[in-house]
Design a protein that fits this description.
Shape: globular
Number of strands: 19
Number of domains: 1
Oligomer: single chain
Bound molecules: guanosine-5'-diphosphate-alpha-D-mannose
CATH architecture: Alpha-Beta Complex
Largest sheet: 13 strands, mixed
Radius of gyration: 20 Å
CATH topology: Spore Coat Polysaccharide Biosynthesis Protein SpsA, Chain A
Strand content: 15-25%
């Protein structure tokens, strides 16, 4: 893959936000014939792929779509499926375990499948991450953010240098391959140990009566503009640098994951940016930025394949919007002016209340290797192949 170097960046404290750049060509290794674009050597590509664990969260998706996603992630990257799918009345989860086993038998690739509600996960995390556990159930809470946090612990447990996330409801396997290649290439473009790459979908679409590939998702367009208005007002220079407030597809170095806050459910991606701006921009002088003296590099790369994923209805879009705006509303970034803006936006979507504050989690300070060893040796439902 050949990726154009970003034209510009803006810094907010130690947060270095790169403007969206593009893939010049989808496949190209050992190919750097022009200045201005970057590609990996074949040796580096494999080395980075091997050290990037790809976490796939799944909750009751079409098994055929999940299988397409899993088959599209390059074989060198360890795969970690974190499922919150039903086990009864129909055992959707066992189907997912079988898909993973089949892929392992055919390819020999490393793949771990864990269930978010595996009682052992709650048992092993309850003292270090009590907020993650739902008191009534005694199990890890529902939510995509919760799934990504557990997946990241597993990625650290297998000693990965990088962790990438890819949703399981993506209909085009070629898009998944492209996201993986973007992760490997863009992560190598930054020299900071604290780095992240966020995919900005070139075109996004849903199946339905009308076929239209849109430039903007409905949630990310709104939430990105709110984050940009925070930056614009803080600095007195208007900016539109953030394009990926809700990028489900993103990857980062393990160093960054370990200093990052994770948020519940669909607030997770927005909170990564909010937390970094709280600690490494606003909180810089109070010493709350653990990345110093390094910058935290955020790269945004526009993909070529259309992002086609499952359409889950208007209520689902509203739920994601309320959670993402809620995490900004209740953050240190929000003054009264911003809160009023958020309330006005929500009103336009017929949501008349103050958005609730989503739960947040710090990265648990546990021995992740021991956590994973215990989980895999004692669990009755979580499995690993090829380790
Ligand atoms: N492990 C786990 N646990 N996975 C979950 C859970 C959960 O409780 N809930 C949802 N998922 C999985 C889904 O199966 C899917 O693969 C992925 O998380 C994203 O969830 P969706 O419900 O399909 O979200 P979406 O596709 O509508 O929205 C995506 O794009 C948004 C931006 O437009 C997500 O990536 C959002 O996080 C993102 O903000």
């Amino acid at each position: 893959m050949l990726i154009r170097y970003p034209f510009k960046f803006e810094t907010y404290g130690a947060v270095k936000l790169y403007d969206v750049t593009r893939t010049v060509s989808l496949y190209g290794v050992d190919f750097e014939k022009r200045f201005g674009a970057f590609s990996l050597t074949s040796e580096n590509l494999i080395r980075i792929a091997e050290s990037t664990a790809v976490v796939v969260p799944v909750k009751d998706e079409d098994p055929l779509v999940l299988e397409g996603v899993l088959r599209a992630v390059p074989l060198h990257s360890p795969l970690i499926v974190v499922s919150n799918s039903s086990t009864k009345p129909l055992d959707v989860y066992s189907n997912e375990v079988d898909i993973a086993k089949n892929i392992y038998q055919l390819s020999g690739r490393s793949i771990i499948v864990i269930h978010q509600k595996d009682p052992l996960i709650a048992e092993l995390l309850k003292s270090e991450a009590p907020d993650l556990i739902d008191e009534s159930e005694g199990l890890v809470r529902d939510g995509k953010g919760e799934g990504l946090l557990i997946g990241t612990l597993v990625a650290e447990g297998i000693n990965s240098r990088y962790v990438g996330y890819i949703d399981s409801d993506i209909y085009i396997p070629g898009a998944v391959l492209e996201y993986s290649l973007i992760y490997y290439t863009a992560l190598a473009m930054s020299k900071s140990p604290y780095k992240m790459v966020r995919i900005s979908w070139g075109f996004k679409g849903w199946y339905g009566e009308e076929f239209l590939l849109r430039r903007w998702g409905r949630v990310s367009g709104v939430v990105s503009s709110v984050l940009n208005s925070v930056l614009s007002r803080g600095r007195k220079f208007e900016t539109d640098i953030i394009k990926t407030s809700n990028s489900g597809e993103h990857a980062m170095s393990m160093e960054l994951a370990k200093i990052l806050g994770f948020a519940s459910r669909y607030a997770v991606e927005t909170y990564e940016l909010v937390h970094l701006l709280e600690t490494c921009y606003l909180g810089l002088r109070e010493g709350s930025c653990r990345a110093l003296p390094n910058t935290v590099d955020i790269l945004q790369v526009e993909s070529r394949n259309p992002h086609l994923h499952a359409q889950k209805g208007e209520l689902h879009v509203l739920e994601m919007l309320v959670e993402s705006l809620g995490i900004i509303y209740h953050s240190k970034l929000a003054d009264q002016h911003l809160k009023n803006t958020i309330l006005r936006i929500l009103k336009e979507f017929s949501y008349e209340e103050e958005p609730p504050k989503p739960g947040t989690y710090r990265y648990p300070q546990i021995n992740t290797k021991k956590f994973l060893d215990e989980l895999l040796s004692r669990s009755e439902i979580s499995v690993a192949h090829g380790f």
